[in-house]
Amino acid sequence: MAKEELLEFEGTVTEVLPDGNFRVRLDNDHQILAYAAGKMKKNRIRTIEGDRVVVEMSPYDLDRGRINFRHKAEGSMPPPGARRQQNFRRR
Fold first, then answer.
1. pTM of the predicted model as reported, rounded to 2 decimal places
2. SS3 state of residue 49
3. Which letter does DSSP use for residue 77 in this model?
4. Are 9 and 54 a contacting pair, CB within 8 Å?
5. Given its phi and psi angles, is residue 76 left (phi above 0), alpha (psi -120 to 50 degrees) or beta?
6. pLDDT, tens digit, for every residue of 27-86?
7. Mind listing the domains of the chain with CATH numbers?
8. Terminal-to-terminal C-alpha distance of the chain
9. Coil, strand or helix: which one is 62?
10. Which of 28, 35, 41, 62 is least buried, going by the fewest C-beta atoms within 10 A?
11. Is 40 helix (H, G, I), strand (E, B) or coil?
Protein backbone atom coordinates (compact mmCIF):
# COMPACT_ATOMS: atom_id res chain seq x y z
CA MET A 1 0.00 0.00 0.00
CA ALA A 2 1.43 3.36 -1.00
CA LYS A 3 2.00 6.09 1.55
CA GLU A 4 -0.55 8.41 -0.08
CA GLU A 5 -3.40 5.89 -0.10
CA LEU A 6 -6.15 6.94 2.28
CA LEU A 7 -9.23 5.02 3.33
CA GLU A 8 -12.57 6.75 2.80
CA PHE A 9 -15.59 6.08 4.97
CA GLU A 10 -19.01 7.66 5.33
CA GLY A 11 -20.50 8.47 8.69
CA THR A 12 -22.61 10.78 10.81
CA VAL A 13 -21.39 13.55 13.11
CA THR A 14 -22.53 12.66 16.63
CA GLU A 15 -20.82 15.40 18.62
CA VAL A 16 -19.18 18.76 17.93
CA LEU A 17 -16.11 19.18 20.13
CA PRO A 18 -14.12 22.33 20.83
CA ASP A 19 -11.18 23.38 18.66
CA GLY A 20 -12.72 22.19 15.38
CA ASN A 21 -12.91 18.50 16.24
CA PHE A 22 -15.88 16.20 15.68
CA ARG A 23 -16.92 12.81 16.98
CA VAL A 24 -18.09 10.75 13.98
CA ARG A 25 -19.87 7.40 13.96
CA LEU A 26 -18.97 5.53 10.79
CA ASP A 27 -21.40 3.32 8.91
CA ASN A 28 -19.59 0.25 10.27
CA ASP A 29 -20.38 1.43 13.87
CA HIS A 30 -16.85 2.57 14.71
CA GLN A 31 -16.53 5.91 16.45
CA ILE A 32 -13.59 8.17 15.56
CA LEU A 33 -12.29 11.66 16.23
CA ALA A 34 -12.15 13.82 13.09
CA TYR A 35 -11.25 17.36 12.09
CA ALA A 36 -12.41 19.51 9.19
CA ALA A 37 -10.16 19.64 6.13
CA GLY A 38 -8.49 22.92 5.16
CA LYS A 39 -10.78 23.57 2.19
CA MET A 40 -13.82 23.20 4.44
CA LYS A 41 -12.38 25.79 6.83
CA LYS A 42 -11.37 28.07 3.98
CA ASN A 43 -14.84 27.99 2.39
CA ARG A 44 -16.54 28.25 5.82
CA ILE A 45 -18.51 25.02 5.46
CA ARG A 46 -20.26 24.48 8.77
CA THR A 47 -20.68 20.97 10.10
CA ILE A 48 -23.27 20.33 12.80
CA GLU A 49 -24.47 17.32 14.72
CA GLY A 50 -26.37 14.88 12.53
CA ASP A 51 -24.65 15.79 9.23
CA ARG A 52 -23.57 13.00 6.88
CA VAL A 53 -19.86 13.31 6.06
CA VAL A 54 -17.08 11.56 4.15
CA VAL A 55 -13.99 10.92 6.29
CA GLU A 56 -10.47 10.15 5.04
CA MET A 57 -8.33 8.03 7.32
CA SER A 58 -4.77 6.81 7.24
CA PRO A 59 -4.34 3.04 7.39
CA TYR A 60 -1.81 3.59 10.18
CA ASP A 61 -4.19 5.33 12.62
CA LEU A 62 -7.79 4.18 12.44
CA ASP A 63 -8.95 6.31 15.40
CA ARG A 64 -8.54 9.72 13.74
CA GLY A 65 -9.65 11.12 10.42
CA ARG A 66 -10.20 14.20 8.28
CA ILE A 67 -13.66 15.32 7.15
CA ASN A 68 -13.34 16.33 3.52
CA PHE A 69 -16.99 16.41 2.38
CA ARG A 70 -20.35 17.21 3.98
CA HIS A 71 -23.45 15.90 2.23
CA LYS A 72 -26.21 18.42 1.68
CA ALA A 73 -29.35 17.75 3.69
CA GLU A 74 -32.73 19.45 4.03
CA GLY A 75 -32.30 20.66 7.61
CA SER A 76 -28.62 21.60 7.48
CA MET A 77 -28.90 24.78 5.40
CA PRO A 78 -30.91 27.94 6.14
CA PRO A 79 -33.72 28.73 3.73
CA PRO A 80 -32.78 31.00 0.81
CA GLY A 81 -33.19 34.66 1.61
CA ALA A 82 -32.75 34.17 5.35
CA ARG A 83 -29.64 36.09 6.27
CA ARG A 84 -28.27 37.17 9.61
CA GLN A 85 -29.05 40.67 10.75
CA GLN A 86 -26.01 42.90 10.80
CA ASN A 87 -25.86 45.42 13.59
CA PHE A 88 -24.20 48.46 12.08
CA ARG A 89 -24.76 51.94 13.39
CA ARG A 90 -25.63 54.47 10.75
CA ARG A 91 -24.41 58.03 11.06
1. 0.73
2. coil
3. S
4. yes
5. alpha
6. 999 999 999 998 988 888 889 999 999 999 999 999 999 999 999 876 555 566 666 666
7. 7-70 (2.40.50.140)
8. 64
9. strand
10. 28
11. helix
